[in-house]
Amino acid sequence: MDRSSRPRSGATRRELVATGAGLLALGAAGALTTPAHARLLATGKVRGLGRGRFADGVASGEPGPSAVTFWGRLRTDRPRSAARLVVATDEGLRDVVATTLVPTSSAVDHTLKARVGGLQPSRHYWYAWQSADDVSPVGRTKTAPPADSRQAVAVGFSSCQSYPHGFFNAHADAAAQDLDLYVQLGDYTYEYAFGDYGDLRGKGGVDFASVDLRTYRDKLRLYRADAALRELHRLHPVIHTWDDHEVADNYTDGQPSPSAQQRNAGYRASFEWMPRIAVPGDRFRLFRGLRLGRTVELLMLDERQYRDVAVVGRSILGRRQMEWLKGRLATTDASWKLLGNPDLFAPLGLNPTGEGLVDPINFDGWGGYPHERTEVLQHLVASRIDDVALLTGDVHMFMANDLMIGGRSVATEYMGGSVTSPGLDVLEGTTASVVRGINPHIRFLDGLHHGWAVARASDQRLEIEFRASDSVVSGAPSRTLARFRQDRGENRVTQVAGATRASDRAFREDPARAPVAPGTPLAARAARIDRAATRDLERRARGGAAERALRADRARSGR
User: Fold this and answer.
1) Ramachandran assignment for 396, one of left (phi > 0), alpha (psi -120 to 50 degrees), beta (any other)
2) Which mean pLDDT values do the consecutive 10-residue runs of the chain (559 residues) have?
3) Angstrom distance (rounded) from CA 162 to CA 245
4) Quick check: 392 and 303 in contact, CB under 8 A?
5) Tell me, what's the pLDDT at 355?
6) What pLDDT, on the 0 to 100 scale, is given for residue 515?
7) d(Cα 339, Cα 289) in Å, to the nearest integer?
8) Tell me, what's the pLDDT at 361?
9) Which of 219, 294, 362, 448 is deepest in the core (most CB within 10 A)?
């Protein structure tokens, strides 16, 4: 890898200066989009470059104060190829600070990854990938603040982006914001074939069930075809953890579980397509910490890979991850401890004290593992750890929760809605008054809207904003749904804008469900939603009944 503050030799400099002949030849192919592309496309004779086109966007992730992971992908029929990564301090790619040649092959789906060091903290960098006959879009990334910095940071987060259910307007909004990092909290893809779970968009295209390595890769390519998702990856560093649908719905419930081969195929494709580097000796490890100065320590959790399969109540994290989490919480000196948490942590069911007495709805989340949930909260109390906030996905709603133990809130949880996946029907048949009465720790709940959220942290304050948009209208704008403020040491949710409480509004009928004339497109859409809701409720009922029976059997046998 060649690093410098500027190109280090005349030859390198000449690579970045376009020649008229090169511009004309490549411009005729329609490849030129910016002056930066022009300069790079004129260097097609760089030694070692292979052939291939860049049709899947670019991405960056895992930002540190001096290093970032970069991602790209070549489309080529050749079994092996290579591309050059160029990193610069300017969008025109004139002030180049690093270049490296990265080989790839069909064994990794022709994806490209490079971890580039020697960068400056808290700084934007621009980058592009170059092959022998194409140049990628120019991406932008940002390094993390210095380890001792107390500067404010902004972290966006979202989950549950079902392609056939709507448009990723949330990502277009997030791409336009000033963020230090974006966190994907699971269900980045859905394994269903078109029509099995949503059919608003994609009709006539190729949307297939994902069951093996080829189809998991194809599914990722389909989702990356979305312009808003590509733009989010192009402009912000992203860190991702999976939930269940990257492999199969609730695949750890044992009803039945997918084969180890299918599970590994889903994991492998996810690693190939995300801007992350594998941990040596632990190929699919996702849980890791990412420090944003002394303001934020982000602890990303994996709540699928290590949980006990078909055994409710034992472990959702696995012992090794649990001890890692407790150790990092106890030793960090960051003002705010943010947990990238794929599944709902707060109890949801019959919980007048907010401490998880009965949790019949959320067996697939932390509600199915109450002992580990209690262990985490007791650790916060015993170690006197304040200012922990969970950034949560999975349940397709906006929620803000106090996390209670011993009659007081010791941490908070913010769920950033779903990008498109349907959410209202998760609680269909449950009235808002009953939910509020038996779950007073739920400070805000909205099951109608879709979108994303952003956490803005300074040394003394954490602010959360929920942003919502119409996911069934392409290009619909976003707006603020609610805002929350949390000062150091408070450990509770305080809403400062938006709906005043977890009101009945969150459970009223979607306008799309109002009576409509039979045979109209709106009536057909309402029928599709009803069918999907019925299947979801039936699945949850089956799973909950099986898990309650298992618990009863264990209680009778004394296990």
Assistant:
1) left
2) 37 27 26 55 73 98 98 97 98 97 97 98 98 97 97 98 97 98 98 91 82 97 97 98 95 83 97 96 96 98 89 85 98 98 90 73 86 96 98 94 96 97 61 68 90 98 97 96 97 88 40 47 51 49 51 54
3) 10
4) no
5) 81
6) 46
7) 9
8) 73
9) 219
Cα atoms in the Cβ-side hemisphere of radius 13 Å centred on 274: 26
Residue 170 in 3-state DSSP?
helix
Which helix or strand (DSSP H or E) is residue 438 part of? helix 432-438
Amino acid, single-letter form, for residue 405 = I
Q: Which helix (H) or strand (E) holds 547?
A: helix 521-557
User: Which residue, 101, 126, 82, 92, is CA-closest to 18?
Assistant: 92
Query: Which of 446-456 are b and which e, b meaning 16 or more Cβ less than 10 Å from the residue's Cβ?
Result: bbbbbbbbbbb
d(CA 120, CA 97): 10
pTM of the model: 0.84
DSSP 138: P
Q: What phi and psi values does residue 481 have, to the nearest 5 degrees?
A: -90, -40
Whole-number Å distance between alpha carbons of 175 and 454: 12
Instruction: Give buried/exposed letters for 2-25 (b at 16+ CB in 10 A, else e).
Output: eeeeebeeeeeeebbebeeebbee
